[in-house]
Amino acid sequence: MRYFSTRGGGDTLSFEEAVLTGLAPNGGLYIPERIPQLPANWRSEWKSYTFQELSVAVLSLFISSEEISQAELKSLVEKSYSTFRHPDVTPLKQLGSATYILELFHGPTYAFKDVALQLLGNLFEFFLLRRNAQKGQGAKPEQLTVVGATSGDTGSAAIYGLRNKANISIFILHPKGRVSPIQEAQMTTVTDANVHNIAVKGTFDDCQDIVKALFADKVFNDAYRLGAVNSINWARILAQTVYYFLAYFHIHSQLTETTDFEIQYVVPTGNFGDILAGYYAKQMGLPMGKLVVATNANDILARFWKSGRYEKIDSTAIVDASDPTTPANGASDGKQTSGGVKETYSPAMDILVSSNFERLLWYLANESAEGSNEKDRRQHACAMVDDWMRKVKQDGRMEVPPAVLAAARRDFVAEKVTDDLTLKTIKSYFEGTPSYIADPHTAIGLAAAQIVAPENSANTRQIILSTAHPAKFSEAVSRALEQSAQFNFERDVLPEEFRALSSKEKRIIDVERPEVELVKRVIMQHMDIKNTTPLQEKGSSI
Ligand SMILES: *Cc1c(COP(=O)(O)O)cnc(C)c1O
After folding, report:
1. What is the set of domains in the chain, with CATH numbers?
2. CB of 32 shorter than 6 A to ligand 1
3. 200/189 Cα distance (integer angstroms)
4. What predicted TM-score, i.e. pTM, was given to this entire model?
């Protein structure tokens, strides 16, 4: 299987090259040449597979065995999911006659990103070890320096994915004192030698600007082989397809009735990675109804499905600039920050544009692409995507033709959920039977599920993907349940592991001012290269 960029150009890449490259040089995202179809006997063959066995079965459809053998893939998968606390890895829980929760937060950092990042870290290590083993004696080994910025919720998943991995160092910047104590402790108590937490005196935007500047600095980037583990990496999408299958089999094995029903997966969405994995599962042949895109007040996706316009700022909202009490964009929830992103109770979904959406756009474009053969149509689709993304970059908006919107509506519905409804939903599920404490991201999925639930639910089963443990987002959960006398955060939500974090050793590097040069110096010192040493020449590219 080969991969190409959604914006075309260049040669196709192997799985290894696509994973190590991340973002294509022309700004595009890598997608497989074709979406493999499920083997004819998948239902009978896979039905009692464990998460790990399903993972090998699904992943090997996208990875040539010459690149990673079945035995190697099996060992990578087993290593990756041995860090999960639940034997099912992603267990399915029933909440109502037609409502299920797919819990994706049983990994080391209690959030769904672990599912992908545990595997990604092992893939990086596997590829680098193999490349270095093939080099002659005395040759300089290939190394990777992963750099990223976090506002708290997602940095720890990257750190846990890469801790203690050979040939890889990770530097994660966070705004000092501006991440929650639990999230800070989750990151800074990882004391492996290759993990570096940098606390920058500044804001999250400062951290992000520094990281962008580091990547843009070609000399520095080449010398240290900067790498990112952001959500556009193809391996992350692929790893996430597996739980759609697991949930499908789980729900079918539980049911004794013979009535036919349709599964509706509901996915709290930010960068469109989690739900895109569901789209791939669907295209491979996994039976399901429309996928439900659930967004918070940062609703660029919900607006797209309503209008066909993909625009950073809602152009239809009436903003009265003279009235400071009128929130921009008609937002009744979420503080508007300077960058236009609204701060909500579900911060891991606070985005302006949705990076993985470009991959879906490519498939939609391909349906209406013209050309007498597949290659020409593919090129035409790439050209359309390139044009759309150029418009988004230049004008902050673009609009797709009606046929493309119709294609999008065939496989998806989208709903926006306000902060207010998020809190109400947490409360109502806590008070329900069985009582369930949802984190605010999961609550957005639960609320959207209710909005789109068909009147006659006898033929539908809803599976809501739960993306975080409620203890990770204590502020929203506590606020939602503050009136509930029976609720006690410490007793009902806080896991033992979180309690233990506060007494663990921490390692933090303080950077006194939000300046690129200061962060550069930290990276150089820790990579054991003295400031005075001229930057090394570029190695073979990854
Ligand atoms: C990242 C994240 C999401 C959004 O996932 P996408 O793949 O970006 O759509 C939702 N919830 C939590 C808790 C997350 O960390």
Report:
1. 51-87+104-237+508-541 (3.40.50.1100), 88-103+241-308+313-351+412-490 (3.40.50.1100)
2. no
3. 17
4. 0.93
